[in-house]
Every structure is written in C-alpha cells, then in structure tokens.
Amino acid sequence: KVEGRSGSMANGERSRTVSVVEPLTKPQIRSKILLRLKTQKEEDRNRKSKLIKDKLLRNKVFKKAKIVMFYVAFGGEVNTEEMIREAKKIGKLICVPICGKDKETMQPAMLVDHAKLKKGPYGVLEPVAEALVKPEDLDLVIVPGVAFDKKGRRLGRGKGCYDRFLSTLSDDAPSIGLAFDFQILPLIPTTNHDVSVKKIIFS
C-alpha cells in the first residue's frame, strides 16, 4: 500500500498502481471556468450576485471607501449593476476601467448617472466620456477574475490588464475579488507578473 507523503510502497508492489494527478495549467483552468460562467443559469447568477452584493455592502473597507473602482460585468461574471447602484445611493463615487488603445493598460474613469457606454477593445462596456481618475485616489478596487484561491491569487482572462493595473497601486491599496463558489480553487498557478487581491467575496 502507499504510505505517507513520500509515496513509498510495500515490497513487490508495482509502481504503476500509484497515479499522480497533474495540476491543471492556467489555460485549462480558464477554459473550464469560462464554460461554467457561460452555462450558469441566469437566475443562479442573479441570486448569488445579490448575496455577494449584500456581503460587500457590509464589508468594513467598502463602508469606509469614498472612491470605488468597480468593473462592468462581462461573460457571466458576478453582476455588479446593483452594487454600483446601491454604492451611488450611499454617496460613493464610482469608477470603472477604460482599456487603453494599446489594449494592455487600464485607467479608472468616473461612471456618472445615465452615462453613455460603448464597447471597449475586448467587448466590455466602458464610459464614452473619459473623466479619468488617478489610480492613487482610489480607496478600493473591485476586481473580476476567472478563478481565485483562498490566498487571493487570481487568474484573469489572460490579457494581463488587471495585473498591470494592480501592480501600479501601493502595496496597501485595498482590493476585493468577486466570485461564484465554483471559481474558488485550492490553488492558482502564478508567475511573478500575477498580482493577488487582498480579499475575496464569493457565494
């Protein structure tokens, strides 16, 4: 029989009885979870998004923050529409990211009421009027992701836009990732360029 961490075997047992499960690669995780996001029932998405919204509104860092950068949900992500509406109602200034012409960088832009939105380079809606906000003025960044682990490690869509943006913020800048339960994995493989979030709220 197999014993202990080292995987030592009893005498005479053939080695092929031990199977090693290879960890999934980033592209494998990405395609698996993106499919789940795409095929999740809309009623489940809305129900879980509401639970996540309630948790976020109770969060201490969120309560304290005056300028919050949200994201505009895309491709089945946790829906932020209601969160943005409620945050505005309680007097917070809301920004959303605008993708740069290089398709690699992002900048926060104010999201005013009844703002006209257009599709950005990757199909995500962003404000037409670019009233930009300095990243250092943000009190909190709400971050989407394809998958997260409990330590805050994040897997995005593979373009690196959020990693580049988050790496420009100070080390103590608060960031919260939003996710559905099936997006939380035991471990996300990371590289030096990947930036973790400080907290994850999921349902």
Could you characterize the architecture of this molecule?
26% of the residues lie in helices and 20% in strands. The strands form 3 sheets. Strands 3-2-1-6-9-11 form a 6-stranded mixed beta sheet. The chain has a 3-stranded mixed beta sheet with strand order 8-7-10, covered by helices on one side. A two-stranded antiparallel ribbon has the order 4-5. The protein has helices at 26-39, 42-58, 60-64, 81-89, 161-167, and strands spanning 67-69, 93-99, 106-110, 117-119, 125-127, 140-143, 147-149, 154-155, 175-179, 184-185, 199-202. By secondary structure, the chain is of the alpha/beta class.
Order of helices and strands: HHHEHEEEEEEEHEEE
Strands, total number: 11
State the end-to-end distance: 39 Å
Helical residues, percent: 25-40%
Strand order of the largest sheet: 3-2-1-6-9-11
Outline:
globular
Beta-strand proportion: 15-25%
- SSE class: alpha/beta
Query: Mean of residue pLDDT?
Result: 89
Name the poorly predicted regions.
1-15
Note the main sheet. Answer: 6 strands, mixed
- Give me the Rg, rounded: 20 Å
What is the number of helices?
5
Write a concise synopsis of the structure shown:
The chain is α/β, with parallel strands linked by helices. It is built from 5 helices and 11 strands; from the N terminus they run H-H-H-E-H-E-E-E-E-E-E-E-H-E-E-E.
Keywords:
203 residues; alpha/beta; six-stranded mixed beta sheet; three-stranded mixed beta sheet; 5 helices; 20% strand; globular; disordered N terminus
